[in-house]
């Protein structure tokens, strides 16, 4: 069965269908239905995935532009699969969360939900693409629905934020385009198929230039320090649901791209640039956290925590050990749930009070205990508390990095202290203390809102204690990647008996 | 003697010992998710889950006793926690089971006491949920068979501690104290985490068995680094210098919390970590020396702080720091000290919980007043509280034949033999203990009444006094039971090893006599100042030294000057740099391009959006052109 095409097809048809529905309420229900169908299909597909089978599964390959060797070719390994699952889990949640968010927008409610489904199809496509050109097309095309979601439904500064987001991303995209075309011509294989391009560029200098073309695009997308300043603006101005997909999924395309393309296509260049990338990552971890502490706007604060978290992911990717790589992949998934929950709950809060400023709150716990409680759990997931899945991935990244790069891992670990400060201080200022006059009548979470948050927190908890199902999918893919790059894990100083491990 | 091998085990209560963790965790989940529906029976469910965990612990203990001493380390496999890093299982051995019994027994008593203490609190259910959560996390901490499992429990108790210190979160002071406790603990956890990374990088295993196996095999193992990193973690959790500052603020939490978490159990986790990591510490004299120095420094610092506090809970908190310092000192000595460290930990768990709950009983009677200068003469009105508290007091100062006499004296004797300077400093600490504890008792229960006009002290209800009575019985008998005949040392040996030669208990040894004499001097001095003399209602200004002690030895001032203010400054700088520096650069680049294109504005629509679109279209054209040209 062409699972991946079906997933995208259902989303696209759904998007078209939404535009035909005349009634806003019906349009929302229809969108929710479509996204749930996609979710169900994706789960059915994932069940059929064999972690120890072929590298790419559910492959489809059709010639698209014959003269250039461009294919519509899709397929997933464990890494792509978990990211697709992340995307299709988040979409219905975002639909439900955005129920009333599009009403104040410049365009119609139906357009918003239609854009969401278009975006869903593209998110699936970008992770599933096994043709480099197809990947590029999705990579760029994804900008369009997100641009409109921010620019037409966002906050007061939405135009500035949307244009900044678009220009920044286009700049990166153009660099990647040049690199993609150069790769095609230098490899001289008359194909854009990812697996055929592996190992074709032998010259290290060529690798370095091509690597940079891809890497800068991904570093802007992720975003890595110092390419990050578009993110706080975009995230703060986007409606909460769009912010979740932006930070939760779209940005992951950057870190996914590093792992998939930068490492496998340009292994020597990747090794050459590792010290630089790890340095940028570590700076991002510490810097993002410190700047987050100083924020006065909740959404910007959450955006900066993500800058810090993306540092962890990039560091894990480039540490090139099994633990760090698998941890980084798992981190991408967990971060989607964790930051998703934070953005959505902050969104609920902001919607009630009409302000993004932390100082406008105080003592909310007293009047809205459920809202406060879920906010705390989401916050604790952001500071990687053990028992929540974010801990597993952060621990894996750190221990995996430590195995090879001692000092960066130690500096990065200070992030756990800084995270405690930015999360708990924000929580204290908004939720604790005497109840502020302006929030005295704040209602607690509604039933719909509880249904939005519950699945996210449940996933964080379940995978916190039992991450094995995800890791079983991720591990073989990461090992295969590291084999392509020709690195092996550092050995134990003192190997111990197997049963004692 | 080396610790015994771990034997895999699946049957009986030991095989089901995961229930100890699961039951309170289930209780917490029901109470938190059930919401107001569970208000009516929440406290009862909380107590039931804690008692059930105690029953499991007791049964497991008796099953363990049924094995020969050399076979008393039983491993229970659970599941693959993080594939590629570690599985998780439980290790039921004399060390962990001792903790389990202490945690669940004292924990259950405190649960019961809280029914009365929190009776009028509208959020009592939530309180019991957090207490259950704490018990579950603490049991995971001591039962896990590897460092990662320990770490999960370690941060879990940190979370419970955060939630409970800030339980009355509408009070800004409580919310701040909770946050501070968590953050300072995270500094310690930073060390612990890197210690675990080092262990993994060295052995590719984080299990206790794996580490022991690796050490037996030998090789270049960074013992000292691991030891010091673990110690940093221990300092955070156990409020040892230099990470002690959170504990005094933690007294913002309800008093049963102070008794359970910040006296009897959680704060002793650092001692557990050091003892459990014995194979690592015993291989590094440096780390062991640092452990003993930290212990002695903290036992003195805590005692000095205890002398100057008028807040009854803070005085007791200083005392807790100090007593854990004694345990740390013993734990740093090695197998000769392990049994005394843990024995003192257990007896301290009883007598300190007894005194904290007693303090809670007093506060309950005095409209939540904590200032001892507004107490006085309470012994007649609160006879049960007074008698039980007084027993705890005698136990902690080491009054002959009571618990503290045996366990603390054991530490002091071992320490003097190990390192004379450190040992005699510990003796000095005992003298100060005699002073500050006597001061506390005299100010509270003796002398004239100095109450506020609206205070009507009365004895607490039975649900609160019975736990006091039971704990005070422990404070009397446990020390003799554990120490005489080296009973506890022999029991623990399969888990932690033991010295070649068992110590012989000598009543009234020279060291012991000096200690007793100093305690008597301290108590006598306290009587002169606070017993026979009038206690002023307002604290006198005092000397420089008094201020030094009142300000917690300037620990907070130091933290503020070294970390907080530079941190705030750094944060502001970073935010400024981000807005003006990086983003400013990006925006001026954009402005430059925008300015250039502005000259062509007459033929453009003027919308920045359309510029973006034209870039996109232009790019597409370029691509197309490339293909056409490239293929000709």
Automatic annotation (TrEMBL), chain A:
Highest taxon of source: Bacteria
GO cellular component, one term: endomembrane system
Main location: membrane
Cleavable signal peptide: none
Coiled-coil annotated spans: none
A single GO BP: electron transport coupled proton transport
Alphabetical keyword list: Membrane, NAD, Translocase, Transmembrane, Transmembrane helix
Mode of membrane association: Multi-pass membrane protein
Pfam families xref list: Oxidored_q5_N, Proton_antipo_M
PANTHER family linked to this entry: NADH-UBIQUINONE OXIDOREDUCTASE CHAIN 4
Protein's name according to its UniProt entry: NADH-quinone oxidoreductase subunit M
Annotated GO MF terms: NADH dehydrogenase (ubiquinone) activity; NADH dehydrogenase activity; ubiquinone binding
Gene name for this UniProt entry: nuoM
Domain NADH:ubiquinone oxidoreductase chain 4 N-terminal: residue ranges: 68-124
NCBIfam families registered for this protein in UniProt: NDH_I_M, PRK05846.1-4
Family in the record: Belongs to the complex I subunit 4 family.
Keyword Transmembrane: yes
Stretches that traverse the bilayer: 6-23, 30-49, 69-97, 109-127, 133-153, 165-187, 207-227, 234-253, 273-294, 301-322, 328-350, 370-393, 405-427, 448-466
Organism encoding this protein: Planotetraspora thailandica
NADH:quinone oxidoreductase/Mrp antiporter transmembrane domain location: 129-417
Subcellular location: Endomembrane system; Membrane
TrEMBL record, chain B:
Membrane-protein topology: Multi-pass membrane protein
Pfam families attached to this UniProt entry: Proton_antipo_M, Proton_antipo_N
Keyword Membrane assigned: yes
Protein localization: Endomembrane system; Membrane
GO BP annotation list: ATP synthesis coupled electron transport; electron transport coupled proton transport
GO cellular component, as recorded: endomembrane system; membrane
Transmembrane segments: 12-33, 45-68, 88-115, 127-144, 190-211, 223-243, 255-275, 287-306, 326-346, 381-401, 421-442, 463-485, 505-528, 608-629
Every NADH:quinone oxidoreductase/Mrp antiporter transmembrane domain range: 144-433
Ranges in coiled-coil conformation: none
Residue ranges of every copy of the NADH-Ubiquinone oxidoreductase (complex I) chain 5 N-terminal domain listed in the record: 87-128
Protein name: NADH-quinone oxidoreductase subunit L
Organism: Planotetraspora thailandica
Gene from which the chain derives: nuoL
């Amino acid at each position: 069965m062409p699972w991946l095409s079906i997933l995208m097809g259902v989303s696209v048809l759904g998007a078209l269908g939404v535009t035909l529905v005349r009634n806003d309420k019906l349009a929302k229900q229809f969108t929710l239905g479509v996204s749930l169908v996609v979710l169900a299909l994706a789960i059915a597909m994932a069940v059929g995935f064999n972690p120890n089978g072929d590298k790419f599964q559910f492959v489809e390959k059709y010639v698209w532009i014959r003269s250039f060797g461009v294919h519509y070719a899709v397929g997933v390994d464990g890494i792509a699969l978990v990211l697709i699952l992340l995307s299709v889990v988040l979409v219905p949640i975002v639909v439900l969360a955005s129920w009333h968010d599009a009403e104040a927008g410049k365009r119609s409610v139906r357009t918003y939900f239609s854009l969401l489904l278009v975006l869903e199809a593209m998110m699936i496509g970008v992770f599933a693409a096994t043709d480099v050109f197809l990947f590029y097309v999705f990579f760029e095309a994804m900008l369009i629905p997100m641009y409109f979601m921010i620019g037409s439904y966002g906050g007061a500064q939405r135009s500035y934020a949307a244009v900044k987001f678009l220009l920044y991303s286009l700049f990166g995209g153009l660099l990647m385009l040049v690199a993609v075309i150069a790769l095609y011509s230098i490899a001289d294989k008359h194909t854009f198929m990812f697996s055929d391009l592996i190992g074709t560029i032998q010259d290290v200098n060529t690798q370095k230039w091509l690597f940079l073309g891809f890497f800068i695009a991904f570093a802007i997308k992720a975003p890595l320090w110092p390419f990050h300043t578009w993110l706080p603006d975009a995230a703060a101005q986007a409606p909460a649901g769009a912010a979740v997909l932006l930070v939760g999924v779209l940005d992951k395309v950057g870190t996914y791209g590093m792992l998939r393309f930068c490492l496998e296509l340009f292994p020597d260049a990747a090794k050459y640039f590792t010290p630089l990338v790890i340095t940028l990552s570590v700076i991002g971890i510490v810097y993002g956290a410190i700047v987050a502490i100083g924020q006065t706007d909740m959404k910007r604060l959450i955006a900066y925590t993500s800058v810090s978290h993306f540092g962890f992911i990039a560091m894990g990717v480039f540490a090139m050990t099994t633990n760090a790589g698998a941890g980084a992949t798992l981190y991408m998934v967990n971060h989607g749930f964790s930051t998703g929950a934070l953005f959505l709950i902050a969104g609920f809060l902001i919607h009630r009070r009409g302000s993004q400023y932390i100082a406008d709150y105080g003592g909310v716990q007293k009047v809205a205990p459920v809202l406060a409680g879920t906010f705390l759990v989401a916050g604790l997931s952001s500071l990687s508390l053990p028992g929540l899945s974010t801990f597993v991935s952060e621990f894996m990244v750190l221990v995996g990095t430590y195995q090879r790069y001692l000092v960066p891992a130690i500096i990065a670990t200070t992030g756990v202290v800084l995270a405690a400060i930015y999360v708990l201080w924000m929580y204290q200022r908004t939720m604790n203390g005497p109840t502020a006059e302006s929030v005295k009548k704040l209602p607690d979470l509604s039933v719909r809102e509880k249904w939005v948050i519950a699945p996210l927190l449940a996933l964080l908890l379940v995978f916190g204690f039992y991450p094995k199902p995800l890791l079983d999918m991720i591990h073989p893919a990461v090992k295969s990647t590291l084999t392509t790059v020709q690195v092996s894990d550092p050995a134990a100083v003192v190997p111990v008996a197997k049963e004692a491990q | 003697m080396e610790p015994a091998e771990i034997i895999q085990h699946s049957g009986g209560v030991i095989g089901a010992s995961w229930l100890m963790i699961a039951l309170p965790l289930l209780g917490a989940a029901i109470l938190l998710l059930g919401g107001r529906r569970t208000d009516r029976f929440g406290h009862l469910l909380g107590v039931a889950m804690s008692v059930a965990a105690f029953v499991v612990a007791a049964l497991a203990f008796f099953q363990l006793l049924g094995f020969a001493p050399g076979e008393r380390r039983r491993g229970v496999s659970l599941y693959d926690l993080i594939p590629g890093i570690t599985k998780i299982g439980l290790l039921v051995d004399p060390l962990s089971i001792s903790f389990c019994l202490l945690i669940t027994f004292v924990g259950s008593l405190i649960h019961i006491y809280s029914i009365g203490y929190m009776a009028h609190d509208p959020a009592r259910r939530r309180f019991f949920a957090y207490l259950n959560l704490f018990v579950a996390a603490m049991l995971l901490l001591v039962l896990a068979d590897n460092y990662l499992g320990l770490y999960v429990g370690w941060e879990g108790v940190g979370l419970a501690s955060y939630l409970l210190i800030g339980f009355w979160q509408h009070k800004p002071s409580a919310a701040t104290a909770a946050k501070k406790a968590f953050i300072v603990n995270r500094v310690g956890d930073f060390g612990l985490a890197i210690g675990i990374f080092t262990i993994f990088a060295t052995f590719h295993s984080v299990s206790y068995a794996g580490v022991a196996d690796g050490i037996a095999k030998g090789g270049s193992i960074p013992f000292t680094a691991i030891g010091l990193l673990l110690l940093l973690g221990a300092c955070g959790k156990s409020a040892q210098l230099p990470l002690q500052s959170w504990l005094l603020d933690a007294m913002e939490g309800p008093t049963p919390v102070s008794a359970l978490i910040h006296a009897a159990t959680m704060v002793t986790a650092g001692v557990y970590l050091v003892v459990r990591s014995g194979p690592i510490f015993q291989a590094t004299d440096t780390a062991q020396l640092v452990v003993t120095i930290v212990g002695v420094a903290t036992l003195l610092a805590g005692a000095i702080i205890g002398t100057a506090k008028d807040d009854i809970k803070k005085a007791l908190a200083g005392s807790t720091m100090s007593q854990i310092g004694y345990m740390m000192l013993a734990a740093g000595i090695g197998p000769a000290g392990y049994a005394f460290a843990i024995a003192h930990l257990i007896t301290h768990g009883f007598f300190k919980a007894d005194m904290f709950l007693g303090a809670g009983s007093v506060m309950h009677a005095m409209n939540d007043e904590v200032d001892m200068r507004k107490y006085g003469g309470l012994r007649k009105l609160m006879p049960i509280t007074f008698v039980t508290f007084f027993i705890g007091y005698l136990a902690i100062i080491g009054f002959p034949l009571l618990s503290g006499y045996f366990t603390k004296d054991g530490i002091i004797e071992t320490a003097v033999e190990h390192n004379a300077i450190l040992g005699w400093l510990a003796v000095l600490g005992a003298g100060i203990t005699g002073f500050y504890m006597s001061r506390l008792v005299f100010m509270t229960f003796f002398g004239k009444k100095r109450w506020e006009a609206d205070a009507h002290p009365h004895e607490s209800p039975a649900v609160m006094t019975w736990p006091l009575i039971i704990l005070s019985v422990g404070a009397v008998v446990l020390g003799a039971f554990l120490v005489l005949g080296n009973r506890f040392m022999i029991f623990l040996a399969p888990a932690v090893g033991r010295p070649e030669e068992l110590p012989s208990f000598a009543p009234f040894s020279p060291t012991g006599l000096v200690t007793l004499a100093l305690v008597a001097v301290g108590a006598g001095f306290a009587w002169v100042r606070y017993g026979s003399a009038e206690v002023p209602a307002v604290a006198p200004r005092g000397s420089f030294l008094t201020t030094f002690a009142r300000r917690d030895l300037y620990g907070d001032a130091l933290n503020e000057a070294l970390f907080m203010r530079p941190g705030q400054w750094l944060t502001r700088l970073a935010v400024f740099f981000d807005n003006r520096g990086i983003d400013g650069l990006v925006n001026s680049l954009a402005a430059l391009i925008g300015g250039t294109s502005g000259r062509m504005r007459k033929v453009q629509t003027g919308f920045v959006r359309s510029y973006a679109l034209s870039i996109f279209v232009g790019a597409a054209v370029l691509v197309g052109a490339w293909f056409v040209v490239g293929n000709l």
